[in-house]
Amino acid sequence: MLRSPHYRLDDVTEVRRLVAGHPWATFVSATSQGLVASHYPVVLDPADPDGLTLVSHFGRPDDEYHELGRHEVLVVVAGAHDYVSPSWYPAGELVPTWNHVTAHLYGTPEVLDEEENYRMLCHLTDHFERGREGGRSLLEDEEGTRRTARGTRGLRLRVTRFEARWKLSQTKPATTVANVVRELEPVNPDLAAEMRAVHPGCPVRG
């Protein structure tokens, strides 16, 4: 990850917001057989309301491929991102870039037992079903969903360190930032909003 100090994001609250808003994560493990990567949803553990603890699950046999619980893993969470064209810059600036908000989260997963795993899967399902019209619950068929749950391995991961970046044109002059935001607004409003948050003087849409 680019380590320029202009883009460092050290605020745990902001990283929690990133995870909450972009729950589809990439898990990377350096196993005895080499690198392994998988993709699963993550949510913040409600038992750790101020810290940075994730809960998720792996489908079997991914847990064995990752040697889950035996070593540290990397969890990559990518937020809003997009290409930034030099055509949005003043004449003479020709180098494009990619603006993004990204976090690399590290920790050794705790593998949940069967009962904890089922509770976690209920929580995960309820989290994403909440607010949906006709939202469903695993408890509507507990016997059946418990059988299905045996094909998964739940995990809890307390993040012991992280590297996060928000690369949002911090090195550009205010007039250039404002123009980039204007160009992004109709096609990527989430990234435009992230830029306005980092550049409080940037004009709002209007």
TrEMBL record:
Q: Which Pfam families match?
A: FMN_bind_2
The record's section on InterPro entries has: Split_barrel_FMN-bd, TR_PAI2-type
Q: Which domain of life is it from?
A: Bacteria
Q: Which SUPFAM superfamilies match?
A: FMN-binding split barrel
What is the recorded name of this protein?
PaiB family negative transcriptional regulator
Species of the source: Kineococcus rhizosphaerae
